[in-house]
Design a protein that fits this description.
This protein is mainly alpha-helical. The chain has helices spanning 8-29, 34-56, 65-88, 91-98, 100-112, 119-142, 149-180, 182-196, 207-212, 216-240, 243-250, 253-267, 277-298. The protein is 79% helix and 0% strand. The longest helix is centred in the middle third of the chain and has 32 residues, at 149-180. The chain is globular, with a radius of gyration of 19 Å. The chain starts with 7 loop residues before the first helix and ends with a helix.
Length: 300
């Protein structure tokens, strides 16, 4: 069990991600563009890692700078594709597609990272993927939103693009962290993410706009939580590798989102208390499958 202690990082990230998504939805509902939250989160990460890099004098050689730039570009583009999938479609349509990231990471690990994947890890990855899909299928079955075939196709396409890019990102961070050291590589890579995110500025809200719609607090909380979860999970990837198991534990965010929604509906009288029994059943089954996948991964 000693070799599983690093999985605390993706576990923490899975909780922080749900908190970030909750505040991001709040900010978006007030009129903040997805690009604004993405850029602010990336700038926060860039500043944190810039301070770490300067204080530790931890940077990769200039000759390897291209690695940090292309991996940072995969991160930024993957985030943008995620938001576009939600914007063009529906969360309950796009999210099951993100579940294939677990399988993609397992496949890429075996093909590119010179890391053998045991049968138990493949089983856990597949089970977690199906569990995520079942959780979200319950939401889809309960949704009254109807999408055109064209918008649905674009939503699924962007979700697949996001899953692919972020899977490549995970494996690349794992390899580069092993080659250069976690701190030097992550410092350089996230500073490049901040620079690349400057390209999002034309589509972001101004400070005056954010204040006028009263979105400052939820936006700052969303960006802070998103940056914190990104910091935690990418540090685990860069320092410890083990991308497949990290992604399996990280998939617990689907379970936390169900639990948070149930608590809000049950005890805080929030919208969504009218959830059907079939929806609750789907979500419960999916949550059990994800939890079982994590247990299998931990006892490999």
């Amino acid at each position: 069990m000693q070799d599983s202690l690093h999985l605390v990082f993706p576990l923490l990230s899975s909780i922080l991600f749900v908190l970030a998504a909750t505040y991001a939805r709040k900010a978006t509902s007030l009129g903040v563009t997805p690009y604004t939250a993405t850029a602010l989160s990336n700038f926060t990460l860039a500043i944190i890692w810039l301070v770490i890099g300067l204080s530790q004098d931890a940077w990769i050689p200039l000759g390897s700078l291209w690695q940090a730039v292309w991996i940072g570009a995969a991160f930024v583009t993957g985030q943008l594709a995620t938001y576009l999938a939600f914007r063009l479609g529906d969360v309950s349509l796009a999210t099951p597609v993100f579940g294939v990231k677990i399988i993609m990471v397992a496949f890429l690990s075996s093909m590119l990272a010179d890391q053998g994947i045991t049968t138990s890890i493949w089983t856990a990855a597949a089970l977690a993927t199906v569990g995520v899909a079942v959780i979200q299928f319950g939401a889809s079955a309960n949704s009254e939103t109807k999408l055109t075939a064209r918008r649905a196709a674009f939503s699924i396409g962007f979700a697949l693009l996001a899953a692919t890019l972020l899977s490549i990102f995970d494996i690349a961070v794992q390899r580069a962290g092993k080659e250069h050291g976690a701190l030097p590589f992550l410092s350089t890579m996230f500073v490049s993410v901040g620079v690349l995110s400057l390209g999002l500025l034309p589509w972001t809200n101004s400070v005056a706009q954010i204040r006028s719609i009263g979105a400052s607090k939820p936006l700052l909380l969303a960006a802070g939580f998103m940056a914190a979860q990104g910091l935690s999970v990418t540090y685990a990837l860069g320092q410890f590798g083990d991308a497949t198991r990290i992604n399996i534990v990280y998939s617990l965010r689907g379970l936390w989102s169900v639990l948070f929604a149930w608590i809000a509906a049950r005890f805080l009288a929030k919208a969504g208390s009218g959830m059907s029994r079939s929806t609750l059943l789907y979500r419960f089954i999916g949550a059990v499958m994800v939890t079982l996948a994590i247990v299998i991964a931990l006892i490999r």
